[in-house]
Amino acid sequence: MAHVLATAQPLALLKRPPPPKASFVDGNDKGPKARHGESESDPAVGLAVARHEFGEHGGVNMSIEASATFTVMEPEILRRLFTGELGPERDQLYIYSRHFNPTVLALGRQMAALEGTEAAYCTASGMSAISSVLMQLVGAGGHVVASRCLYGGTHALLSQFLPRTSGVHTTFVDMDDEVAVRSAMKPGETRVVFVETMSNPTLAVADIPMLARLACEAGAKLVVDNTFTPVVVSPARLGADVVVHSMSKFISGCADIIAGAICGPASLVKAMMDLQDGALMLLGPTMNAKVASELAGRLPHLPLRMQEHSRRAAEFATRMRLLGLQVRYPGLPDHPHHDRLSAMGNPGYGAGGMLCVDMGTEERANSLMYHLQNTTQFGLMAVSLGYYQTLMSCSGNSTSSEMAPDDRARAGISPGLIRMSIGYNGTLDQRWAQFERAVTLMKQETPSASASKLI
Ligand SMILES: Cc1ncc(COP(=O)(O)O)c(C=O)c1O
């Protein structure tokens, strides 16, 4: 990856460039420090001062290490790689790309810089990041305390899959209720407290410092899914032990990649890559190096994109409220967690790009979405988030459909709840005019007419 590797001489394989002074796990500590006046806690500053990888031929972008396997010049080196005496950290020596891959590792460094963690490694999906961290930290028969409102896939993992496959059981609680969280902890059994910074889809904001304290008191790790709020909130700086991401969303920004990340202590990444016992090594949710290269080019403009997602979402939430709609957006002053988000959030990035509109019934929600997509072209009916176009879905019958109706009701997911990921293409006024027109059309329709349009 460094210029010095550009030589074609085989001997260069023996004389690798000198290892960097710090190991890969200290990605944040490499390169210039933030200068006076720049906040080191600003993720944009962290990203900008992280080590920049150049391409093999001096390219401004890193090269893609497309190899599945890596050669050594001495058999002895291979043996020492397998015993762990040599490795990517100190020696820039690699075994096989299901283990560390240089390009994926470089992206991991960027993710560590973004989240302010010691280390990070990237995976093939957000779900593989979540499931492998849970399997690594909890172990068979262990206990998890999790938020009642989580992405449907994570909820199903905790309520169905893990109990069936490994006897891991979860107590779901209202994470705002300190007494309930405390009493859900089982001494000696609870290994993980799991929460989303901003819950999918209800947009509740977790009190991360409080949960970090409770987890620590119980000897558990706080794992936070920061998929909805990259850059906006930095959970590790607030006390979370591990931060996971679906990079398929805002980080990708283009709805064309499925990817995930695990950000946390170097010891966790190392343990997860252990050849005998590591969940990443043995379950194998490997990120392709070509995907890592794509995402590495998108991270530098993530802070800019998040600012615009937030600005538009805040403006739309305000205007939707004035239209008389039931809007949920943590940036609105009457959101129950508005002050908490203001206190926890990174200044300058707003309250994120997600908002919810509760239309009361699924039929009205469907009618509005129909017009927003097919009549006025405001956005697209699709699950997922973080795209440059607005995406909208009715959570109860889509991304939260894995949850039982009672669980959905307890989590505050009403049948008419539309989750919107506010995009930034087109102008704000153009988009607003499209939104207003769709609402007018929906109001003019009879409920039965709007339902028939869906067929
Ligand atoms: C909050 C959250 N976490 C995790 C995931 C899973 O991510 P992926 O689809 O990348 O596996 C999702 C997907 O929608 C999500 O919304």
TrEMBL record:
<feature type="region of interest" description="Disordered">
    <location>
        <begin position="6"/>
        <end position="44"/>
    </location>
</feature>
<dbReference type="InterPro" id="IPR000277">
    <property type="entry name" value="Cys/Met-Metab_PyrdxlP-dep_enz"/>
</dbReference>
<dbReference type="Pfam" id="PF01053">
    <property type="entry name" value="Cys_Met_Meta_PP"/>
</dbReference>
<dbReference type="GO" id="GO:0019346">
    <property type="term" value="P:transsulfuration"/>
</dbReference>
<dbReference type="InterPro" id="IPR015421">
    <property type="entry name" value="PyrdxlP-dep_Trfase_major"/>
</dbReference>
<keyword id="KW-0663">Pyridoxal phosphate</keyword>
<comment type="similarity">
    <text>Belongs to the trans-sulfuration enzymes family.</text>
</comment>
<feature type="modified residue" description="N6-(pyridoxal phosphate)lysine">
    <location>
        <position position="249"/>
    </location>
</feature>
<dbReference type="GO" id="GO:0030170">
    <property type="term" value="F:pyridoxal phosphate binding"/>
</dbReference>
<protein>
    <recommendedName>
        <fullName>Methionine gamma-lyase</fullName>
    </recommendedName>
</protein>
<feature type="compositionally biased region" description="Basic and acidic residues">
    <location>
        <begin position="27"/>
        <end position="39"/>
    </location>
</feature>
<dbReference type="GO" id="GO:0005737">
    <property type="term" value="C:cytoplasm"/>
</dbReference>
<dbReference type="GO" id="GO:0016846">
    <property type="term" value="F:carbon-sulfur lyase activity"/>
</dbReference>
<dbReference type="InterPro" id="IPR015422">
    <property type="entry name" value="PyrdxlP-dep_Trfase_small"/>
</dbReference>
<dbReference type="InterPro" id="IPR015424">
    <property type="entry name" value="PyrdxlP-dep_Trfase"/>
</dbReference>
